[in-house]
Amino acid sequence: MTPIGRHVAEFSEPGSTAVPWADVDRVLRESEMFWLSTVRRDGRPHVAPLPAMWLDGKLHFCTGAHEQKARNIESNPQCVLTTGTNTYRSGLDVIVEGTVAPVGDEPTLTRLARMWLDKLDWPFEVVDGQFRDPGTEDHRAIVLALTPAKVLAFAKAPYSQTRYTF
User: Which Pfam families does the entry mention (predicted)?
Assistant: First the structure.
């Protein structure tokens, strides 16, 4: 499903235009690293870098069930994933806000494991609805999917903000 985009003139340079969804989609597909923002049970923020894969309109990532981000998501599944560039005058930054849910079906996990291998040379086995590092029993990761509610795209030079809703 293609989201509805709206150029946000208030936060854009005069004469700038909306970022096409195709450009946002490309950044989400091609980016290797994202920043995950979650909220701890006591309300404090938590941010962590991690790889994510854009598949079927969702951003997928994995984490150990014992890690802080997994515990945060367990109590509050709303989070944000961001990616883009660290340059001021070029590139496209993308922010994806939404709700996270676990992924456990083997066909999706198998596709995602293949994406991790192809994109990052990071092999995973699919075992019992989770990822596992090959040759280990205890290095497992739950896989989560962020379903976007809102996506913000920030183009630079000219500066432009586009808000996408689903």
Answer: PNPOx_N
Contact 159, 13 (CB under 8 A): yes
For residue 32, being part of any structural domain is answered with: yes
Length of the chain as a residue count = 166
82 lies in which domain range?
A: 20-109+144-152
Please give the average per-residue pLDDT across 77-93, as a whole number.
96
| 72 closest CA partner among 105, 92, 111, 100 | 100
Structure tokens at 65: 């069930």
Residue tagged 């991790």 (tokens): 116
Domain for residue 43, yes or no? yes
- The pLDDT tens digits of the residues spanning 4-26 come to 999 999 999 999 999 999 999 99
Tell me if 134 is assigned to some domain.
no
**How far is Cα 108 from Cα 44, in angstroms, rounded to an integer?**
32
* Token pair listed for 26: 């490309």
